[in-house]
Specification:
Number of strands: 7
Structural class: alpha/beta
Largest sheet: 7 strands, parallel
Strand content: 15-25%
Number of helices: 7
C-alpha cells in the first residue's frame, strides 16, 4: 500500500475526527500549548482521531498530546496532518502520524471540512481566523452539515461581542448562525 492509499483509507474510515486549529507561533511554555496538549491527550485516550495543519505551535501540542494519549487507548486512533506548501517551507511536527500536503489553502480547507466531525479553534492569527470563518460560512449555507465549532479560550470574547453588536444587530446574519458557535472560556 502506498502512502496516498494509506492516508485515504484512514481519513475515510468511520473514525471520529476532531480538527484542532490554532497558532503556529505559540511556544511550549505557553499555557495554551499545554491546554491543547492535554485536550489532545484525552482525545487520544478515547481513540478519537485528531486532524491539524501538522506544523508547530498549537498543531504540535495537539499532535504530541494525541500521541501520548493514544498509547493507553483501547481503540486505535490517528494523528493526521494536513500541511500546506509555503515559501518558508513548514515541516510536519514529529507527532504527526500520517500526512498530506496541499498547494493551496482552499484545497486544504476543503479537506479539513470533508473529514471533521468537530472543530476546536484555539487562539491564533490570520490563518486560524480564516479556518474559523470558512467552517462557519460553509455550515451557514449548508455546504457541510452542522458540526460543533468550539472557540477555545478568552481570545474570542471580543470577536463574539462584536459579532453580536454589529453584524448580527444589523441583520447581516441571523441569531441561528450565532448558535453554530460554542465558546469554551478558560476557567478562572
Amino acid at each position: 500500500m502506498n502512502k496516498k492509499e494509506k492516508f485515504d483509507e484512514i481519513v475515510k474510515s468511520n473514525h471520529f475526527h476532531v480538527t484542532i486549529f490554532g497558532s503556529a507561533r505559540i511556544k511550549k511554555k505557553d499555557p495554551r500549548y499545554n491546554q491543547i496538549y492535554t485536550l489532545a491527550k484525552l482525545l487520544g485516550n478515547e481513540g478519537i482521531d485528531i486532524i491539524t495543519g501538522g506544523g508547530p505551535g498549537i498543531m504540535e501540542a495537539a499532535s504530541l498530546g494525541h500521541q501520548a494519549g493514544k498509547k493507553k487507548a483501547k481503540i486505535k486512533s490517528h494523528t493526521i496532518g494536513l500541511g500546506i506548501k509555503l515559501p518558508h517551507e513548514q515541516e510536519f511536527n514529529k507527532g504527526v502520524g500520517i500526512n498530506k500536503k496541499f498547494d493551496k489553502f482552499s484545497g486544504r480547507l476543503d479537506n479539513f471540512m470533508k473529514y471533521s466531525n468537530v472543530v476546536v479553534v484555539a487562539p491564533g492569527g490570520v490563518g486560524t481566523i480564516l479556518e474559523l470563518f470558512y467552517t462557519w460560512q460553509l455550515m451557514q449555507v449548508n455546504h457541510i452539515c452542522n458540526i460543533p465549532i468550539i472557540l477555545l479560550g478568552d481570545m474570542w470574547d471580543g470577536l463574539i461581542k462584536w459579532l453580536e453588536k454589529d453584524p448580527l444587530n444589523k441583520k447581516f446574519f441571523e441569531k441561528k448562525d450565532m448558535n453554530l458557535l460554542f465558546h469554551a472560556k478558560n476557567s478562572q
